[in-house]
Design a protein that fits this description.
By secondary structure, this protein is mostly helical. It folds into 2 domains: 250 residues, no CATH class; 235 residues, no CATH class. It is 77% helix and 0% strand. The protein has 23 helices and no strands. The protein is globular and about 75 Å long.
């Protein structure tokens, strides 16, 4: 029975998956079937055995199954152009959702069919992947399993697999952290955010780096909470996942490894090894981040300014705003603009193909659902009674907010790069947002409701603004007048919230 679960069933899953891939492929069935079946079979064997080894439950199994289905389904539809989804541009016509994926995958195929060694992917000969990790992996897959056919879906399968393996590691880490009681609801919230966040599905259905970063960082989450492992073993596994992250993306990987290393230091079993107190540790970490930001300031600002200029050139709306505020504040506006990307009202109204309108609306809705949880995280910090939990959460929250702002500055307000950079941090974002929602709902905190109300007002105001802009059905407020009105409404929400806090404080003080 165990043999069937661990070997036979995965091979059968591999067979059916391969048959679907080969059926929709434009290549000869025999050219792609056997190699792909071997590849998918060993991949499913890894997935099934990891699922059993980590002691995962039925809920996690259902989530992993649906998550993999969504990623492979979207990947197959776009790769094989099963519907009219793309525009008349080469990447779309060739079945790629992103130009970066197109460039990288074409070069990986070029490397795969050449006589060059795979390690050439890490040289300057292949400029589509500045780090080389995904390009090398893709080339290996093509060279080993379909050397005569450029079967793009195999790389998507690999990317999606690593992504959903991350769900297993995240679930196992949450069980180690919370046990089986609190994790019953809180862990489910965190897992659902990580597995079904729309951008996670979108990028997991393409040949992009971010799903790999998410999967490997989930491995780090698991190992730092695996307290029954000896510290030497944990550091070894931590180093392994860190190496994989750095192989995929050096710059993003460094920040992810640094953040998880901090989280590891805060674990209770390492308290005896800590040579400074938590408060000093928190201050030291924040100081290190600020010092790093200071020395990276010029590079970040120059790159961000360039991207902001490109954003202005592409958008008449941004040109209008910059003409009023001046070029001096162009990057400031682009940074704030990037925080709201993808803009939900714009995604709902802007004319485009039905596929992209639905996709962009879902992407934006995903971000706007979790955004209040990030803001409420600061409120939860002040509500939390346990000092160690507070300090740990504050550091993670600050690192997350720092990364989101850094992503927005670096991407210059771009609709694709902002969400893409944020996505790399999805494990920690899911934890922050899930914890915030769980604790806010449990406390029935008025601040959580107020944040959602403020966001709803923002969406409705800009929705009517975009409707008026694109349809001309009615005349709307000027952009800056609308900002003034929104600022006034937000101020009222904030002030009434503070008044309520004072009233609650007085009631608690009077009560025996």
């Amino acid at each position: 029975m165990k043999f069937a679960k661990r070997i036979i069933v995965p091979i059968l899953f591999g067979f059916f998956t391969t048959w679907i891939f080969a059926f929709f492929s434009s290549y000869e069935f025999i050219d792609v079937f056997w190699g792909t079946w071997f590849f998918t079979s060993i991949s499913y064997i890894l997935l099934f055995n990891l699922f059993l080894w980590l002691g995962s439950n039925k809920f996690l199994g259902v989530v992993v199954g649906i998550a993999l289905f969504l990623r492979l389904g979207l990947g197959l539809i776009t790769t094989e152009n099963l519907i009219d989804w793309g525009y008349d541009q080469e990447p779309y016509l060739s079945g790629y959702l992103f130009r970066d994926a197109y460039n990288r995958d074409m070069q990986s195929w070029e490397l795969a069919i050449s006589d060059q060694p795979i390690w050439k992917a890490f040289s300057s000969d292949f400029i589509s992947d500045q780090y080389g990790g995904l390009l090398a992996s893709s080339a290996i897959i093509y060279r080993l399993f379909t050397p005569n056919s450029h079967l793009q879906i195999n790389v998507i399968f690999f990317v999606a697999l690593i992504n959903v393996l991350g769900i297993l590691f995240l679930g196992a880490g949450l069980r180690e952290k919370y046990g089986d009681n609190k994790s019953h609801l809180l862990s489910k919230i965190i897992i659902i955010i990580f597995a079904f966040y729309p951008d996670a599905i979108l990028f997991g259905a393409s040949q992009m780096r971010e799903p790999l970063l998410m999967g490997f960082s989930a491995g780090l989450f698991w190992i730092i909470h695996k307290l029954n492992y000896k510290i030497g073993a944990r550091i070894a596994v931590f180093s392994f996942f860190s190496f994989l992250l750095l192989l995929v993306s050096l710059k993003i990987g460094v920040f992810l490894v640094f953040t998880f290393l901090i989280w590891l230091i805060f674990q209770p079993d390492l308290l005896p090894f800590r040579f400074i107190k938590s408060k000093l540790l928190t201050i030291s970490i924040i100081s290190m981040v600020l010092i790093t930001a200071y020395f990276s300031y010029n590079w970040i600002m120059e790159a961000g300014e360039w991207d902001a200029i490109i954003l202005e050139q592409k958008s008449g709306f941004v040109q209008y705003i910059v003409s009023i505020i001046g070029t001096k504040y162009r990057l400031h506006f682009a940074t704030v603009y990037g925080l709201f990307q993808p803009v939900l009202p714009a995604a709902l109204v802007e004319p485009s193909k039905l596929f992209w309108r639905i996709l962009q609306s879902l992407r934006a809705a995903g971000w706007y659902i979790i955004f209040p949880g990030l803001i409420y995280g600061l409120v939860y910090y002040f509500r939390e009674k346990d000092k160690e939990t507070r300090k740990q959460f504050l550091v993670l929250w600050l690192m997350t907010i720092f990364w989101i702002f850094l992503s927005s500055i670096r991407a210059g307000g771009d609709m694709w790069d902002n969400p893409r950079y944020r996505l790399s941090f999805l494990v920690i974002i899911s934890y922050i947002v899930g914890t915030s929602f769980f604790e806010g709902w449990k406390r029935k905190d008025h601040w959580l409701i107020r944040i959602f109300v403020a966001e709803l007002i923002f969406i409705l105001f800009f929705l009517q603004w975009y409707i008026a802009r694109y349809t001309g059905l009615f005349e709307n407020l000027s952009f800056f007048n609308m900002v003034y009105v929104l600022s006034l409404l937000f101020g009222i929400i904030l002030i009434t919230g503070i008044i309520r806090e004072f009233k609650n404080y007085r009631i608690k003080k009077r009560s025996p």
